[in-house]
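Changelog-adjacent note: as of this version, every example in the card shows the full chain rather than a window. The one below runs 454 residues end to end.
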Amino acid sequence: MNTILLHKYNVPGPRYTSYPTVPYWDEKKFNRGIWIETLKRSFVESNSKEGISLYIHLPFCESLCTFCGCNKRITKNHSVENPYINALLKEWALYCKILEEKPIIKEIHLGGGTPTFFTPDNLKNLITSLFINAEKAQDFEFSFEGHPNNTSKEHLQKLYDLGFRRVSFGVQDYSEKVQKAIHREQPFLNVAKVTLWAREIGYTSIGHDIIFGLPFQEVKELVDTIEKTKSLQPDRLAFYSYAHVPWIKGNGQRGFKDEDIPKNHQKRLLYEIGKKSLFENGYYEIGMDHFALKNDTLYKAFENGDLHRNFMGYSSSKTQLMIGLGVSSISDSWYSFAQNTKNLEEYYEQIELDNLPIYRGHFLTSKDLVIRKHILNLMCLFETSWENSEDYFEEIHSVMKDLEEMENDGLIKIGVTKLTVNEAGKPFVRNICMAFDLRLKRNAPNTQLFSMTV
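Full-length structure tokens:
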């Protein structure tokens, strides 16, 4: 990565798990009635064709990881498990009542927090209870996030027996110094153990998450982490840039000083060495921050042009409707977004009142839908086109004008009705998407809302 270009384009920017991004939702025009209308519309259009997705947020963790920006509740009290699962199932029952017909579930993802905080039996109860009023799609894909320190062989086996075939483990970095700084102390042996168990049981996609740019992280730490990772050969890897946003994440990210965090050329070097090592070991770049072996479904989806991105991240399967269950979860009907309350006690209160626990959302305009498609194309395919009339919008030429400098820098190629991201431009895909983000351009923030793009 060119140092000059890094300095030029490393600015705050969204990660585009949605468009519009959450800070630019028009919450004043949103209400539950609109959400339910679009929910029903999307369900009718898509349930019988492709099914729906469920994201289930399990917020509990036994300790705080200082790099994490997820909505979580820190506790060692496992009596919280059953009340939370009961609330999730009651929320799901509210949605099933609205949908009227039996949902066909294509995708389930258990995120957190720490999903493996919950006992294997409680997770089994959750999943089996969901299907009392639902069916599995023929090509379903179920996945979960596992903490290497507390994922047991029983967790892996019971979830496998329920149809889960994909698991991701948070590695971050194997350096003891780095782990101590981010309060995520887990030896390589723990990661190796759960990875080998998953492979032995029959999981077809095992993922590891690695972060570059963590406090105290140097080249030798990252190289050691990737060398250890290579020895386990996970099917896919997320190679994330550390997002230092203490103004959002509060005291959890103030356990180290700013000068302890690699910046500029130091961070660039970590990225380049890590990426080069992954390429040399058979991993292919898939979208932004993700790498996969050829045997993985993520690689196949990218090659076939089927890769999708939503609030759960990248997915090898697309559904028009995604329902988020649990505190802070975000649902996506394609035509609107709806987010549950972030406060656990308030979540319980709304569920007890038989209310969907939604506190904000956004209804997408016709132009939002067009822009969203372009940003998804760039994030998933590294190209987009406005050759078809339904993909054209009146500001497209001014967007291309704004991108001319990036073309001059060799990052993209602009055609008459098509934009292609060059290899050199892939690290800057968030910057390219920002040129399409009309809401961001019209109302630039006065304070920093987002992490740096590189």
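Structural remarks: The mean pLDDT is 91.
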